[in-house]
Amino acid sequence: MKNVSVLLFAAFLAFPAAAQHKFALVIGNADYRTVTKLKNPLNDAADMKTVLESLGFKVDTVNNGSLKRMTDAVAALKARLRASPGSYGFLFYSGHGVQSQGRNYLIPVDAAIESETDLPRQALSLQNALDELNAAANEVNVVVLDSCRDNPFDWSPGAKKGLTVITHRPNGSIVVYATGEGMSAVDGSGRNSVFTGAFIKHLAEPGIEIMQVFKKTGEDVERETSGKQHPAVYTQYYKDVYLGAKPAPGPDPAPEPSPGFDPATARDYIKRGNFYFEQDDYEAALADYSEAIKLEPGNSYAWAVRGYCRVFRGETEAAFIDLNHAVKLDPRNAYIFSYRSALYVSVGNVNQAFVDSDRAILLEPNRGFHYYLRGKAWQTKGDERKAKADLDRAENLGHGLLY
Q1: Second-level CATH architecture of 22-235
Q2: In the prediction, which pLDDT does 188 show?
Q3: CATH homologous superfamily for 3-16+262-397?
Q4: Residue 308: pLDDT above 70?
Q5: Residue 38: CA atoms inside 13 Å, Cβ hemisphere, count?
Q6: How far is the CA of 191 from the CAs of 184, 230, 240, 370, 371, in angstroms?
Q7: HSE on the CB side for 47, CA within 13 Å?
Q8: FRET pair for 209, CA 20 to 30 Å: which of 17, 20, 118, 156?
Q9: Are the C-beta atoms of residues 147 and 106 closer than 8 Å to each other?
Q10: In the predicted model, is pLDDT for residue 212 greater than 90?
Q11: At what angle do helices 316-329 and 300-312 cross, to 10 degrees?
């Protein structure tokens, strides 16, 4: 490793050792204004949040969400996942959902949908939400939908029940419906819906792989509904997923970089590059990030991670070129500014590092990662009082490590 990257190593590796990063969004819509209110979703959302937090997830919650709140929350989840490439994402929705013209929609509580043509404007498209999460290029996203109730709108007496099969399931995704295509789910007579009650019970079991969670949930739901409700699982991810702690390990098999690798997609090159990066194989990572840029020259994330990788190879000038270009492509991505601020610290330009750190904090004032790096810059400058204030703030918010 060349000397130019030593300071960056010190800055980034000074964080506590990183566990698997896990981020979740939980939405519970119950108090609908123009259609039937629902009894269980707020309880479902609260109990799901509790279980996910016990498994180490950082959870954002939206209760009785408008379209804007739901859309903004999905965008925030995408940003968290995109900033942590190997992370697990989880989206849970409990509330009304309908299908129309082969697409699925999650209904905000304030939606005034007078006809089927209002759906694209007033409801959250499930496909759009999946595409947003797919663009994060993280490890895997699990999407669980307890929304397969009867269509609640007066204009749809002949409409199909429940949700329809997703026409495009992104790679790296596992999507679960509370019941099968075109079927209605039971809302439940207790605190939770039948599906969510069974799901959170098994999700909390220690050392259980996600497909076993769904298998046990399905068995419970079928038994409790006398075979009337059958949960459906659609997967485009084929490695084991443990949302909590893994079982006691035996000998670890050698990791495989990219099963199902598609050389036509920038996303797969970025994911494989991230794998190589985490194995300290910076040459292979750089090659994959470069291939991603060839496929998608406008992908700011690819430029940013390539610049970050170049730092670890001691390629300061090239790192600045990549990070400067990433900023031009996406001037509202706070993490790019934090990357570049750390690079400025490594070359002794602390004043410019403060400019980038301040910009990152302005864009994301509640992200501990940015305060941590600014705190390190204050330490370099010798101002321990300001350094402590930023480092304490980072500790309170959580560091939000990238790697």
Answers
A1: 3-Layer(aba) Sandwich (3.40)
A2: 65
A3: Tetratricopeptide repeat domain (1.25.40.10)
A4: yes
A5: 32
A6: 19, 20, 31, 40, 41
A7: 19
A8: 17
A9: yes
A10: yes
A11: 160
